Amino acid sequence: MPYKDLEKRKQFMKEYYQKNKEQTKEDRKKSATKWRNENRVKFNENARKFYETNKDKILSNLRIIRKNPIIRKKDNSRLKAWRNIPMDGKCERCDNPARERHHEDYNQPLKVNLLCGLCHANIHGSLKSVS
C-alpha cells in the first residue's frame, strides 16, 4: 500500500516486519541463496574484493588462531560440529528453532547442544533470565 507520508510508511513496514519476522528472515535467506547461485561469478568477485580490502585483518586473525593452541582447538571443534551436525532441530531448553551450537567441552567436538540465541546467551551469562 503506497503511503505519501514517509512516517506512516516507516510505521507500516515496522509493524509488518514484526508480524512476519520469521517469514521475512526465511525469504531473505532464500533470496540470497538464489542470487548467489544465479550470480556465482559476481559473488566470487565480491568475495575476492572483500578479501583484498581486508587481507591484513584476515591474515592477522589466522595467525592468532594458528599460534594459540586453545583457540585452534576451539576453532577446529566448531568446524567439526558445523560440518557434521545439522541445524534442523529445536532448542534443547525452550523448543524454539535452534540457531546456534554450544560446546560444553571442546575435547568432545561432536557433543554439542542445539540452542536458540537467547538460551545460548543465557548460558554464557550475557543475559540474566529468559522472559
Give a structural overview.
A hairpin with an 8-residue loop joins strand 1 and strand 2. This protein has a two-stranded antiparallel ribbon. The longest helix is centred in the first third of the chain and has 18 residues. The chain has a domain of 46 residues. With 131 residues, the protein is mainly α.
Topology of helices and strands:
Elements: H1 6-19, H2 21-38, H3 40-53, H4 55-67, H5 69-84, E1 100-103, E2 112-115, H6 117-123
Antiparallel strand pairs: 1-2
Helix pairs in contact: 4-5
Which labels suit this protein?
single chain, 131 residues, mainly alpha, two-stranded antiparallel ribbon, 63% helix, extended
Q: What is the oligomeric state here? A: single chain
What string gives the helices and strands in order? Answer: HHHHHEEH
> Termini, distance in Å?
35 Å
- Low-confidence runs of at least 5 consecutive residues: none
Q: What number is the mean pLDDT?
A: 83
Radius of gyration: 20 Å
How do the strands of the widest beta sheet line up side by side? Answer: 1-2
Q: What portion of the residues fall into strands of 2 or more residues?
A: 5-15%
Q: Which word captures the global form?
A: extended
Query: What structural class do helix, strand and pairing data support?
Result: mainly alpha
Short description:
This protein has 131 residues and is mainly alpha-helical. The chain is 63% helix and 6% strand. It has a domain of 46 residues.
